[in-house]
Amino acid sequence: MGGTNAEVVQEAAHDMKKLDIAENETTQETAAKEIRESKLSNSNGTVMVSQTPQNDDEVAQSDGTALDGLAESAKKKKKKSRAKKKKEPLEQTDPPTIPVDELFPSAEFPEGEIQQYKDDNLWRTTSEEKRELERLQKPMYNTIRRAAEVHRQVRKYMRSILKPGMLMIDLCETLENMVRRLIKENGLQAGIAFPTGCSLNWVAAHWTPNSGDRTVLQYDDVMKLDFGTHVDGHIVDCAFTVAFNPMFNPLLEASREATNTGVKEAGIDVRLCDVGAAIQEVMESYEVEINGKVFQVKSVRNLNGHSIGPYQIHAGKSVPIVKGGEQTKMEEGEFFAIETFASTGKGYVREDLECSHYMKNFDVGHIPLRLPRAKQLLATINKQFSTLAFCRRYLDRLGETKYLMALKNLCDAGIVQPYPPLCDVKGSYVSQFEHTILLRPTCKEVISRGDDY
Ligand SMILES: [Co+2]
C-alpha cells in the first residue's frame, strides 16, 4: 500500500522541479481574471454610448439648442436599454461563474439524448398511458437535468484548462469549486455527489488526492475524470478519460464505444448479462500500440456499471462489462450509470494505495457510539454528506482535523465503508467513459450526454 504511493509522490516531486507549477497556475488565474475584466468592460462600454452624461456633452457641443430634448431622449433610452437587458438571456462566462438556474430563466433544463426502445418495447413510444406517467415525473426529470447541465459545463471548462504540469489537487479543487458555484450548492439539496475521481494510468477508479499530495499530471498519463453532481439526491454519475499523447487514442476509443454500446443495449426488461456481453464484444475488438507493443484491449471484468437511487450511488444492480453476468433485468423508471473500463493490463483490479474515498453504509440504522470523537465525526458526516460519498479533503475543508482514528472507528463499526483505489497491474493503462441514463416509460434518456461524448 504505502510503497507504491511513496513512489508516486517521489515522481511528482521530481517533476515539480522541471516545471514551475506555481508560476504556471498564477498565469492561468491572471488570464482568467483578464478575460472576466475584459468582458465586464465590454458590456459597460455598450451601455455608456446611450446613457453617460459624458456622451450627452459631446452631442451637445455639436448642437447646443437640442440639449434638453437630447437629455430627455437619453433618459428614455436608458430606461429602454435596462428593460431590454433584463429580458436578454444570460450567457455563461469563461471561466463559468453563473449558476445554471440563472442561465435558464424558464427553469426548464435541456433534455438529454433521447433513444427509442426497440423490438418488444416499441409500443411504449406512443402509449398514452406511459406518456401520462411521464407527465407526472416531469419535475423530477427537470431536477436531474439541472445536475447534468452543470456536469456538461464543468467538464467542458476542465477540458480547456487541463495541461501536463498541473497539480492534481489544484485540478480537483478548481473542478469542485466550479460545481459548487454552478449548482448553487446548498446542504444536501444540491451539490457534489461524490469525490472527483482523477485516477491515473493503471489506477482504474476511486483515486483522488488527499491533502498534501504533490502528484502532477504528466504528458503520458491516462486520467479518468469521474465526477458527480446532484440536485435533491438525483445523481449524475458521468466520466471521461484524458490523454495528451495520441498513442492512447484507440484505448480511449474502446471504452467510449463500449459505453455507447451499453447505453444502446440498455432498456426495460433487458437482462444485465446481455448488456455486459455486448459491451465486451465491442471493447475487445480494439487494439492499441503503446511504445511499440501491441495490446488487445480488455474489459476490466470486476468493474461494473450500476443502478442509482436517491442519495444512493450504487442502488443494488450491477451492469457487467463482460459476458457471463446476472440474468436480472432492468426496469421502468430506473437510473443506471453505464460505465466501461478498457485495460492494457490484466483486466482485473484490486485495492491498493492510500484510501481517500469513504461513504456511509446506505442501510445502516442508528448505531449508538460511545467514543466522543467518532460520534462527533459521524454527526458531521450525517449533516454534510448523509449517504453520499466523500473524501478526506472534504472533511479537511470543513475544518475537521486529526480525524483518521475516528474515521477508522466508524469503518470498523460498519457505519462507514472505505473505498480504496482500484488498480490493474503496475505499468498498464486503463481508460473509462460513463453516462447516466434513465429508463423513462416511453423512451430512454441519456441524461449526461453532451456534444463531447
Ligand atoms: Co459510476
Automatic annotation (TrEMBL):
Organism whose genome encodes this protein: Musa acuminata subsp. malaccensis (Wild banana)
Function: Cotranslationally removes the N-terminal methionine from nascent proteins. The N-terminal methionine is often cleaved when the second residue in the primary sequence is small and uncharged (Met-Ala-, Cys, Gly, Pro, Ser, Thr, or Val). Protects eukaryotic initiation factor EIF2S1 from translation-inhibiting phosphorylation by inhibitory kinases such as EIF2AK2/PKR and EIF2AK1/HCR. Plays a critical role in the regulation of protein synthesis.
Region (Disordered): 1-103
Biased composition range(s): Basic and acidic residues: 12-21
Localization terms from the record: Cytoplasm
Cofactor section: Co(2+); Zn(2+); Mn(2+); Fe(2+)
Domain Peptidase M24, chain residue ranges per copy: 143-347
Cofactor-binding details, from the entry: Binds 2 divalent metal cations per subunit. Has a high-affinity and a low affinity metal-binding site. The true nature of the physiological cofactor is under debate. The enzyme is active with cobalt, zinc, manganese or divalent iron ions. Most likely, methionine aminopeptidases function as mononuclear Fe(2+)-metalloproteases under physiological conditions, and the catalytically relevant metal-binding site has been assigned to the histidine-containing high-affinity site.
One GO molecular-function entry: metal ion binding
InterPro entries cross-referenced by the UniProt entry: Creatinase/aminopeptidase-like, Met_Aminopeptidase_Type2, Pept_M24, Pept_M24_MAP, Pept_M24A_MAP2, Pept_M24A_MAP2_BS, WH-like_DNA-bd_sf, WH_DNA-bd_sf
Broad class of enzyme this protein falls into: hydrolase
PROSITE patterns recorded: MAP_2
Biased composition range(s): Polar residues: 40-54
Keyword vocabulary terms for this entry: Aminopeptidase, Cytoplasm, Hydrolase, Metal-binding, Protease
Protein name per the record: Methionine aminopeptidase 2
HAMAP family, sorted: MetAP_2_euk
Domain of life: Eukaryota
UniProt record similarity statement: Belongs to the peptidase M24A family. Methionine aminopeptidase eukaryotic type 2 subfamily.
